[in-house]
């Protein structure tokens, strides 16, 4: 069978932020590439159209997709861009196409039968992780078998909605004290089908300037339960790993097939979890086998140690992101952020010691937020020279999260203002009111924090390397424009003249 995986263009949704979103977030659609590789492994013919990377409009995407004449169209959905997929699927149906459309992703797993009831343009919905359910579905569909016997899917049969049980990849990780007994559950799957993608289109700014890169997953899951993550709804606290050998073999395969790719983004939630038994073994193999790459990832500040970073930097680590979120201890308790503030200071200094850029991501608009807590956070980030980059987003109550439940119920001072998921964007929009802060206030405070952070000269070089000359010029122009807007905005005057400013 022929399966066409479609990934619509999405950066236009960010308006003013679109340029930076496109330059920093045009990534290989890793989940689609993995499923395409699995489909090929089972003898099917897969293709991928990445409309984001190739800058393809919806109309052209529909035409190109239909021209492929596949047996199945496949999509994946995240909540903020669900409307793009529904529109794409609807346009395919309106073209007269009878080709079935399947769809998966976190939004589908969270919303379940509500999607089947309200969006008939999707023929089959996938729940959970589709690594096993997809080949089972394709086999049953091809043979004309009863699809109600396939686990992990939802579909309509006449007026009845058939709901299958969500499927999750099997894993046998056990933690006993500091001993980790594990099966490398993810080793059973092939490497993502990069040969189906325009790999030369994926570039990212690093300390050495913009370079071709790709993403690699070494471990799936995060064992914590922060209120802004849908950890229970999409079962993200389950841990599944790959062997260090498998990870390094994938890197070598990337360099063999795409010699121009010199940078890897490890998309793990917590790269240094079980560091000695995992990422340090990967680094040791990279060093031993003379692999010349740079890489970056994310972790938690309390899982950063001096000797660990020294070895990772030797292997090519150039940037590490950590979720600081806020420095207000009461808010941190509410969101269940179980990392001490002193760990961020310590981790940032360790990264600076070894020439690794430290990115600290923060959110405003979390439960308990006030003007004072935002000013406190702004002061910290503005003056923390060891923090080379800081990303400030507006907290979004995504479906399936405890934060969403709070906002829906109006508890903890949070009130949900909009149920349109297309408005659930982290930049330039807010869909909640928090305490006395309106959605408009949150957007203006986000802009103000951006100005305070990136008007500091010691952050200009990292941003120049990340965005390039044109991007850096646009960044500085935006800083100046926002500052001018705030000076002449009467509603912002009390904020700008706050005693701490």
Describe this structure in words.
With 501 residues, the protein is an alpha/beta fold. Helix content is 38%, strand content 19%. It has helices spanning 18-25, 30-41, 58-67, 82-94, 106-111, 113-118, 130-143, 244-257, 279-288, 306-315, 329-334, 341-353, 371-383, 402-409, 439-454, 460-487, 493-496, and strands at residues 2-7, 45-50, 72-76, 101-104, 124-126, 153-157, 160-163, 174-176, 179-181, 203-206, 209-216, 219-220, 240-241, 263-266, 294-299, 317-325, 357-364, 389-394, 414-416, 432-434. The strands form five sheets. A seven-stranded mixed beta sheet has the order 2-1-3-4-5-6-7, sandwiched between helices. A seven-stranded mixed beta sheet has the order 10-11-14-15-16-17-18. A two-stranded antiparallel ribbon has the order 8-9. Helix 2 crosses helix 7 (130-143), helix 8 (244-257) crosses helix 9 (279-288) and helix 9 (279-288) packs parallel to helix 10. Mean pLDDT is 90; it is low at 493-501.
Question: What would a concise description of this structure say?
Answer:
The chain is of the alpha/beta class and 501 residues long. The protein contains 17 helices and 20 strands.
**Domains counted in the coordinates: how many?**
2
Helix content: 25-40%
Radius of gyration: 23 Å
The coarse silhouette is: globular
Low-confidence stretches: 493-501
Mean pLDDT: 90
The number of helical segments is 17
**In whole angstroms, how far apart are the ends?**
63 Å
Beta percentage is 15-25%
Query: What's the level 1 CATH class of the largest domain?
Result: Alpha Beta
How would a crystallographer describe the biggest sheet? 7 strands, mixed
Give the class from helix and strand content and strand pairing.
alpha/beta
